[in-house]
Each structure stands twice: as C-alpha cells, then as structure tokens.
Amino acid sequence: MEMDKGTIRAHVGRNLRYRKLFEAYPEGDHGKEAITHYTVIERLNYVTLVRCVLETGRTHQIRVHMKYLGHPLFNDDFYGGDKIVKGTIFSKYKQFVDNCFAICPRQALHAKTLGFIHPANGKEMFFKTEIPDDMHLVIEKWRNYIKTAKA
Known about the structure:
Layout: E1 5-9, E2 11-14, E3 22-25, E4 35-44, E5 47-54, H1 61-69, H2 91-103, E6 113-117, E7 124-128, H3 133-150
Antiparallel strand pairs: 1-4, 2-3, 4-5, 6-7
C-alpha cells in the first residue's frame, strides 16, 4: 500500500461477463456506490496489514476495492491474491509464500468488529472477535521473514 490511509470510492457491481465476480466501477455507471476507508496497521515488506472501515456494505466490497487498488487480499483466489503480485521471483521467496498460503488456506479477511440493527426487534447488535489463529500465524511468519531479511 503506497499511502498510510485513504478512502476508496468506486461502485461495486457484478462483472458484466462473469456473474460470480464483482468489479469496481470508478465512474459509477454500473453497480452500487461503495465507500471503504483504510488505514495501514503494519507493513510487512511485500504484504501489508490493513484496517478497513466500511461506509457501505456491498457484496465482496473489501475484496473488490483492494483488488482495484492493486493489492488483492492475501490468498484470495477469486480476486488474484493467491498469486505473488509484489516481491521477488526467487524460488526461495515463492516457497515461503506458498508455505504462508498453506498456513492460511483462505482469504486473509477478518471482521474484528461487526454491528447492525436487528431487523426484527430494532436492537443494536455488536460483535467483536480476535484474529483467527491461522491469520495470526501468517502475520508472525511475515514478521520473522522481515527480521531474517534485514539481518
């Protein structure tokens, strides 16, 4: 991520050819308005830990907006995060990334906090959870990789 924080404003809608995929449409001529605010939490060399706050709630919004910025979610095979898009091409690095993919065999996306108004009773519902173990292990693996690379 080039900037430490920012706001992504791009409509999110279904891909015009592949209905299972969603795309960002910056001109707003397709899809629905979507706004994501992001802040960099930690830079881990070729990957970045990011906090996103959604102003809207569109299907695949974070995944689509991050891909739109050129930074797909780690191990998101639907939107290109299962490939090395940044970094070196050395086989040792590729092996390291593949090992990270094996530790966290899903997209690295976690809702730490989630809130909404219950549609039946009108009460505010609020949930908070910690980062799952597999994601925590991958973050630690990247931290150790950086320490080793600097040494």
